[in-house]
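Next comes a single protein record:
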Amino acid sequence: MKKIYHLCLSSHDEVLFRSEADFNRGFNALALASLMTDSNLLADGLLTTHLHQLVQTDSPIETVFRMRYSYVRYFNTKYKRKGKLGERKPYCLEVEGYHHTLAALNYVNRQGLHHGLSPSPFGYPYCSSNAFFRKLLGKEFDKPLLPTNQRYKNLPEGVSLPERYRMDTSGLLLREDIIDTTLVETYYVSSRNYLFQMNKIGDEISRKEQQEERSSSPVITLELIEKGVPGMDIEQLLRNESGKHNPQLISDLELCTLIDETLLPKYYPGLTIYETSLSQRADLYNRIWKGLWASRHKRTTDAQLRRCLCLNT
């Protein structure tokens, strides 16, 4: 019988996804890896510096390696970059038991909320939170889809997909087609409980339920879920649970878009960020720092600027 695993792959001081197209391609690579390893994807959360997945599989590490290999080939080609992307081995945690699995599902689906990217789990588009109970929650609507014969443009060369895997016009495979929503919804039981689980604050009840459950798994907490991400401020993630999203904090995605689509074409046309010299990146650092603080609209940090400008690589 296949077991359930939580897997986390971190990029440490580098950005994994620099654009919406990158996020889409990342999820497509995850979907293909699940298909090729005969695995059931239960939940995912893609962030610029790391990604989470909860998967039912016989081969958890192979699933991550296949995803990473496919995505890194795309990323390196697009940005004219060389070398591996992300850590050598993912963080892998076997999850056993109903309450343990429910806690892991909650943490993966609430990634956007915990990382302060949205005031609710449903406002962050690069995770699986909107894939469940779609009809009952009024989220079932017709999306513009690519014709089947056009899907190849957003997939690795030579890959063929089952007809049931639909792709929207942004190049993203639909999560509701990929994820085993039927199985996940049995854990939540009802759409009402799903909404409660997505919006509750704190996990003392969850801890107690897990401690009372016969399971070899450790108690699933936010700290354990994020263990594969170095230097994560767990206290800040817990504070973000209240939904106090600060729109003045620029996101990595917004910053990378500013760099790749505005500043590079203006100051270093024809180059990707990986083709610029360290002195050119330092120049962009100063321009962004002065420009954002002068505008008073958005704020950034030294660490964020360094990872988005690849100053740590």
